[in-house]
C-alpha cells in the first residue's frame, strides 16, 4: 500500500544489494587500476632492459673495435724488445765475467808473487841458472830455426785458442735467445737436423757440431721468426694463403706444391684442409726442410730440381731476380733457342740410354750363345 511503512526485511535486503553493487564497482575499479599499473610497469621494465642490452652491445662493439685498432697500431709501431733484453743481459753477463776475470787475475798475481819470492829465496841459496848466467855474462845467442818454429807454434796455439773461445762465447750468447741454456739449444738443434735428414730419405744421419754452422742456423732461425711475427698477430698462427707472403718476406720462392708437401711431412696432416692454421715451429721447420742447413751434409741439388715454373740457376732460385736490374729481358729468339736445346738434349739422352740398353742386350745374347 502506498505510504505504508516498508517491511524491515525488504529494506535490509535492498540495502545489502546496494552495498554489494557498490563494493563490486569499487573492486572492479581497484583491479583495473592495479592491472593497468602492472602492465605499464612491465612495459617500462621491458623497454629499460632492451635499452640496457643495446647499450651493452654498443659498448662491447666499441671496445672490440678499439682493441683491434690498438693491436694494429701496436703491430705497426712495436719495437724489438728482445734486442733490448739481450743487450741488458749481455751487459750484466759482461760485468760478471769482468769481475771473475779480475778476481782470477788477482789470484794469478798472488801466485806469481809467491813463486817469485820462492825463486828469489832459492837463488839466494844456490845461485842463478846456467842459462841465466850465460845471458848476462856470455855472448848473445843466435835465433835458430827450432826456436823460431817453437815460437810460431806457441803463437798459433794461443791465437787459435783465443779465436775459438771468442767464437764459442758468441755462439753461447746467441743460443740463450733460442733456449734457456746451451745444452738445451744443442739438443733442439740436433733433433731438428736429424728430422730434416730423415725426411730426405737418410735413415742413419750423422751430425757434427760446428760453431759456424750453428751460428748460421741461429741467424736464419731468428730471421724466420721475426718475419713470422710480422705477418701474424701476437700469439696467432698463419693460414695457408699467408705462407706465400711469409716465404717472400724471407727472400725465398719455393713452389706452392713443394712447401705444402714438406709441410704435410712436418705436421703429419693435410695442410690443404679448410681452416688449417700453422704454428711458428711448424712453419720454421718446414722452411729448414726445404732450405736445408749446412749441418745436414746434404746437397740441395739432390732433392730440388729446376723446373720451367720454378727454375734454379746455380742452386739459386731465379724468381729472386725477377723484376731486378741485374737481369735483362730475353728475346723470343733466345727463349726459343733455350727450349729447342733443352728438347734436343732430352732426346739425345733418351737415345743414348736406349742405345746402351740395346748394346747390353746384344752382349748378353752373345754371351749366352757362347755358353751354348
**Structural class computed from helices and strand pairing:** mainly alpha
* Approximate strand percentage: under 5%
Q: Nearest-angstrom radius of gyration?
A: 46 Å
Provide mean pLDDT, rounded.
81
Number of strands: 4
- The number of distinct helices, counting runs of at least 4 residues, comes to 10
Shape type: flat
- Subunit organisation of the chains: single chain
Helix content: over 70%
Structure description:
With 372 residues, the protein is an all-alpha fold. The chain has helices at 8-77, 81-126, 130-137, 145-175, 182-199, 211-231, 243-249, 256-267, 280-290, 332-371, and strands at residues 238-239, 277-278, 312-313, 316-317. The strands form two sheets. It has a two-stranded antiparallel ribbon with strand order 1-2. Strands 3-4 form a two-stranded antiparallel sheet. Strand 3 and strand 4 (316-317) form a beta hairpin. The chain is flat. The mean pLDDT is 81.
Amino acid at each position: 500500500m502506498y505510504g505504508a511503512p516498508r517491511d524491515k526485511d525488504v529494506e535490509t535486503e535492498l540495502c545489502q544489494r546496494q552495498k554489494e553493487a557498490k563494493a563490486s564497482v569499487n573492486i572492479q575499479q581497484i583491479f583495473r587500476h592495479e592491472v593497468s599499473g602492472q602492465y605499464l610497469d612491465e612495459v617500462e621494465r621491458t623497454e629499460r632492459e632492451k635499452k640496457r642490452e643495446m647499450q651493452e652491445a654498443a659498448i662491447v662493439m666499441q671496445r672490440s673495435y678499439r682493441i683491434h685498432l690498438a693491436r694494429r697500431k701496436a703491430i705497426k709501431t712495436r719495437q724489438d724488445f728482445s734486442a733490448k733484453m739481450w743487450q741488458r743481459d749481455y751487459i750484466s753477463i759482461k760485468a760478471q765475467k769482468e769481475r771473475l776475470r779480475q778476481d782470477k787475475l788477482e789470484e794469478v798475481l798472488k801466485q806469481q808473487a809467491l813463486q817469485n819470492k820462492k825463486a828469489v829465496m832459492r837463488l839466494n841459496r844456490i845461485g842463478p841458472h846456467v842459462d841465466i848466467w850465460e845471458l848476462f855474462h856470455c855472448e848473445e845467442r843466435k835465433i835458430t830455426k827450432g826456436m823460431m818454429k817453437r815460437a810460431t807454434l806457441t803463437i798459433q796455439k794461443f791465437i787459435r785458442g783465443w779465436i775459438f773461445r771468442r767464437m764459442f762465447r758468441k755462439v753461447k750468447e746467441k743460443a740463450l735467445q733460442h733456449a734457456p741454456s746451451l745444452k738445451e739449444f744443442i739438443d733442439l738443434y740436433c733433433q731438428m737436423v736429424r728430422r730434416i735428414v730423415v725426411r730426405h730419405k737418410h735413415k742413419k744421419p750423422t751430425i757434427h757440431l760446428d760453431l759456424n754452422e750453428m751460428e748460421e742456423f741461429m741467424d736464419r732461425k731468428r730471421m724466420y721468426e721475426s718475419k713470422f711475427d710480422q705477418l701474424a698477430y701476437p700469439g696467432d698462427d698463419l693460414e695457408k694463403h699467408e705462407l706465400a707472403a711469409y716465404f717472400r718476406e724471407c727472400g725465398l720462392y719455393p713452389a706452392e706444391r713443394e712447401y705444402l708437401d714438406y709441410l704435410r711431412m712436418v705436421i703429419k696432416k693435410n695442410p690443404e684442409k679448410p681452416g688449417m692454421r700453422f704454428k711458428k715451429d711448424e712453419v720454421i721447420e718446414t722452411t729448414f726442410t726445404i732450405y736445408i742447413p749446412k749441418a745436414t751434409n746434404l746437397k740441395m741439388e739432390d732433392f730440388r730440381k729446376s723446373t720451367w715454373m720454378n727454375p734454379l740457376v746455380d742452386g739459386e732460385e731465379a724468381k729472386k731476380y725477377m723484376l731486378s736490374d741485374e737481369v735483362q729481358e730475353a728475346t723470343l729468339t733466345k727463349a726459343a733457342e733455350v727450349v729447342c736445346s733443352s728438347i734436343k738434349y732430352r732426346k739425345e739422352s733418351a737415345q743414348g740410354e736406349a742405345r746402351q740398353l740395346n748394346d747390353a742386350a746384344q752382349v748378353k745374347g752373345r754371351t749366352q750363345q757362347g755358353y751354348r
